[in-house]
Each structure stands twice: as structure tokens, then as C-alpha cells.
Amino acid sequence: PKMEWRETAELYHLSFDLPGVDEKEIKIDLKEDRLFVQAERKSNFEAQEGRSVRTEKLYGVYSRTLELPSD
Q1: Given a cut of 90, is residue 59 above it in pLDDT?
Q2: What is the CA radius of gyration of the chain?
Q3: Which of 13, 21, 39, 48 is close enough to 6 for a disulfide, judged by CB 3.0 to 4.6 Å?
Q4: More confident: 59 or 37
Q5: 3-state secondary structure at position 60
Q6: Phi and psi for 24 in degrees, rounded to 5?
Q7: Which of 28, 33, 25 is nearest to 14 (CA)?
Q8: Among 57, 66, 58, CA closest to 38
Q9: Res 71: pLDDT
Q10: Coil/strand/helix, residue 6
């Protein structure tokens, strides 16, 4: 996913663009100097009668690994 990363003297501020992802589906893990972010966007479109004409939304698992400065 696309993201923004800002840094101040005290902290890092990371913001990820995860439209349609339930907060419960976001996993964040920090190991040494690597930040792992994983999220899953599930389809809420229930199978109904008829055929799908067009689908442009992306569903599935997103993941990012960021190497943080070691200062």
C-alpha cells in the first residue's frame, strides 16, 4: 500500500493508505530495525444471482516491510 513517512526528533509517523480494510485485519510487527505491516481487504460483495460485469476493486493481502534507521 502507498504510505507517508514523517520523522521528528522524537518519533516516526507512518500513515498507510488502506481503504476498505477493517482495523482488525491490520497486523504490525517490529523486529530489530524492520517494521512489518500486513493487512487484508476482504470483499463484502456477496454472491448473488447474475454475472459480474466489472470489478475494479482489489481484494487480498497487502504487505510492506520497512527498514528503519538504526539511530
Answers
A1: no
A2: 16
A3: 13
A4: 37
A5: strand
A6: -70, -15
A7: 28
A8: 66
A9: 67
A10: strand
The 3-state secondary structure of 36-47, one letter per residue: EEEEEECCCCCC
Q: How many CB atoms lie within 10 A of CB 41?
A: 18
Q: What is the pLDDT of residues 14-52, one digit of tens each?
A: 999 888 888 888 999 999 999 999 998 887 776 667 776
Neighbours of 3 (CB within 10 A): 12
In three state form, how does the secondary structure of 15-38 look? EECCCCCCHHHEEEEEECCEEEEE
The pLDDT value given to residue 31? 95
Q: 38-45: long-range contacts at Cβ-Cβ below 8 A with a sequence spacing of 24 or more?
A: 38/62, 38/63, 38/64, 39/1, 39/63
